[in-house]
Design a protein that fits this description.
Its EC number is 2.3.1.234. It is found in: Cytoplasm. Residues 309-336 form the EF-hand domain. This protein is of the alpha/beta class. Helix content is 43%, strand content 18%. It is built from 11 helices and 10 strands. It is globular. The chain binds adenosine-5'-triphosphate (ATP), magnesium ion and fe (iii) ion. Magnesium ion (MG) is lined by residues 10-12, 136, 299-300.
């Protein structure tokens, strides 16, 4: 089964052909980071326009790289949410047109399910599992008991982790995206600032990062007003330690109380070296398996959408051509 998958939920224009949900025949991703850099974040309208310019090229390239003709395909899959609505609609319309023109079934895919299934491109998912999705737009702790069965254990109540990274980086005067920059500086710094850790209610798996973000920004503001020197490496390390403590402790709690052996970490922030290191230590200490997909499958891509789509194909879960994009879709409703 060969599926052409399309992903345009944020600032990556991506298309991929995936065979049987795990063999990547092509994986084309055009990132718009350079265009959004000067604004210090993703500008939705700019993103949509880029998607319009790039989508046809990306799809053609994915088909060429896979060395396939439209008639070799079995279905077209597309991310229909969550994401920026204008951005989603570009991919959605391209997918619908392709499916209609070549008489192929259309498969609607939830973006976060894609991040979890990115693992399937490297090894088969084993259930039950817990997945921590950390990116610029999402911070979610999800449990799966079997294929296409999602339970949300917790999620952020305000900022996503990546968003907090990018905002703190901006106040430190670092370029966008800030995550890699802070990660780099943190390696040379110490946790001297001791920023707060937001654990919220004791048995909640929800996250909150806006308090931490404000604490960092206020500290920088106060120190600057007093003309005190700012140790950027220590600020980065202190911020990152707070993030890692909360993310790993809540995730570990979930693994233990849900009695799960497999942990998946995905999304752009899964690239963070401090977070990876801490999870590796914890997995050895507590005996769970840690799976983090290769970076190209951690950040937004279409191959992960193709991986989910295969499971939906097996269940004949297809959409009509009136399928609409949605900026928010509860992943529990994407359980089949
Ligand atoms: P979405 O939230 O829809 O998945 P996105 O484009 O915002 O989309 P990703 O592309 O998955 O998310 O990830 C980008 C985010 O990851 C940015 O916020 C970036 O700062 C962060 N990031 C990337 N590398 C690192 C790193 N080494 N440490 C921390 N954060 C990182
Ligand atoms: Mg991105
Ligand atoms: Fe994403």
């Amino acid at each position: 089964i060969k599926i052409l998958a399309i992903e345009t939920s944020c600032d990556e224009t991506a298309a991929s052909v995936v065979q049987n949900g795990n063999k990547v025949l092509s994986n084309v991703v055009i990132s718009q980071i350079e265009s959004h850099k000067r604004f210090g974040g993703v500008v939705p309208e700019v993103a949509s326009r880029h998607h319009v310019e790039l989508i046809t090229i990306v799809i053609e390239e994915a088909m060429q790289e896979a060395n396939l003709k439209p008639e070799d395909l079995d279905a077209v899959a597309v991310t229909y949410g969550p994401g920026l609505i204008g951005a989603l609609l570009v991919g959605l319309n391209a997918a619908k047109a392709y499916a209609f023109a070549h008489d192929l079934p259309l498969i609607p895919v939830h973006h976060i399910a894609g991040h979890i299934y990115a693992n399937q491109l490297e090894r088969k998912l084993q259930f039950p599992l817990v997945a921590l999705i950390v990116s610029g737009g999402h911070t979610e702790l999800i449990k799966m008991n079997e294929h296409l069965d999602f339970t949300v254990l917790g999620e952020t109540r305000d900022d996503a982790v990546g968003e907090a990274y990018d905002k703190v980086a901006r106040v430190l005067g670092l370029p966008y995206p800030g995550g890699p920059e802070i990660d780099r500086l943190a390696k040379e710094g110490e946790d001297t600032y001791k920023f707060p850790r937001a654990y919220l209610d004791k048995d909640s798996y929800d996250f909150s990062f806006s308090g931490l973000k404000s604490a960092v920004i206020n500290t920088l503001h106060n120190e600057r007003q007093k003309n005190n020197p700012i140790n950027e490496k220590d600020v980065s390390r202190s911020f990152q330690e707070s993030v890692i403590d909360v993310l790993t402790e809540k995730t570990l709690d979930a693994i233990i109380s849900e009695d799960v052996k497999d942990l998946i970490v995905a999304g752009g922030v899964a690239a963070n070296s401090g977070l990876r290191g801490r999870f590796e230590t914890l997995s050895e200490k507590h005996g769970f398996n840690l799976y983090i997909p290769a970076l190209k499958y951690c950040t937004d891509n279409a191959a992960m959408i193709g991986a989910v789509a295969y499971e939906l194909y097996l269940k004949k879960h297809f959409a009509d051509l009136d399928l609409n994009g949605q900026n928010y879709i509860d992943i529990e409703e994407f359980s089949f």
